[in-house]
Amino acid sequence: MLRGGALRRRSGRGFLASLALLALLAVTPSRARPANVSSLKDKSPSSKEDNEILPPDHLNGVKMEMDGHLNKDFHQEVFLGKEMEEFEEDSEPRRNRKKLIEIFSKVDINKDRSISAKEMQRWIMEKTEEHFQEAVRENKLSFRAVDPDGDGHVTWDEYRVKFLASKGFNEKEVAEKIKKNEELKVDEETQEVLESLKDRWFQADNPPADQLLNEQEFLSFLHPEHSRGMLKYMVKEIVRDLDQDGDKKLTLSEFISLPMGTVENQHGQEIDDDWVKERKKEFQEVIDANKDGIVTMEELEEYMDPMNEYNALNEAKQMIAVADENQNHNLELEEILKYSEYFTGSKLMDYARNVHEEF
């Protein structure tokens, strides 16, 4: 399924469009710089630490991307947690089967050899917490990178210096120009990203606003999904991008609309048809909680909240329904192995072979 900005145009000032530019900027070689890029830009990013100071363009365990597209890996993220990388497509099927059996055993708390909706809900919440704790650990490293004086607070200027340095600008020269309040000559795309990041920065600054971010506020800046205030902000930006009549609500047609010129061939049409069907189902069956045909910001916020226990229970029921061949509203080991591709992204061969013996 297509993600990112592939299916929807964004306005130049849009927060989401600017976030999409982060990926573009990150892969632009420094030697092939546009003509209007300042001479301050003289090197490429060379360390993982540089990239960690940027807000990620994908949030694990959140049902919707920041550009309004559905997270196609959501089921795997909330079922596998940090073990996702162990289920790569090219990994050995027998090893993956064994790992999946181990996960089944962990989810099956009462050891009755089946997984109930409540057991799956508990597991989803546990895996979501894993993603959050990973974000906290990464944030500590990122915060140190942007807090050079170690005073526990980061100014917008401190962050701006580190951001531009991560994009290939000379850090000392940028810092000197900012200190002297001199104009920074940067290309248009970089300037758009800076403006969007600045807006996001001040949204993360909890009241009373002091234009400084501490470590917790910086976590909200990088991971808005784990801050109620920033989650509201993220929802507001998504609605603004999809809302066509300006009523700050989403109809089904607004939620599934595609830009003109997207479909260029029959294969593209099939992809778009699948995309529309998926979004229509999600809108009608999940997001529109009161079934009135309209999605409000409040409904979208509840839908996107990764720590919403009610959503986790609904998700558990949906995940079970996909593989529940005997219709007993539980998952048996044979079922979860047969539908391993849905749960892990990896298809297992001979899924039922010796399953009881291995378990």
From TrEMBL:
Residues 34-58 are annotated as: Disordered. InterPro entries: CAB45_EFh (IPR027240), EF-hand-dom_pair (IPR011992), EF_Hand_1_Ca_BS (IPR018247), EF_hand_dom (IPR002048). The keyword Calcium applies. GO terms for molecular function: calcium ion binding. Residues 95-130, 134-169, 235-265, 275-310 form the EF-hand domain. The lineage of its organism: Eukaryota, Metazoa, Chordata, Craniata, Vertebrata. PANTHER family: 45 KDA CALCIUM-BINDING PROTEIN, RETICULOCALBIN. It holds the Pfam family EF-hand_5. PROSITE patterns: EF_HAND_1, EF_HAND_2. The keyword ATP-binding does not apply. Belongs to the CREC family. GO terms for biological process: calcium-ion regulated exocytosis; sprouting angiogenesis. Keywords: Calcium, Glycoprotein, Golgi apparatus, Metal-binding, Repeat, Signal. This is 45 kDa calcium-binding protein. Residues 1-32 form the signal peptide.
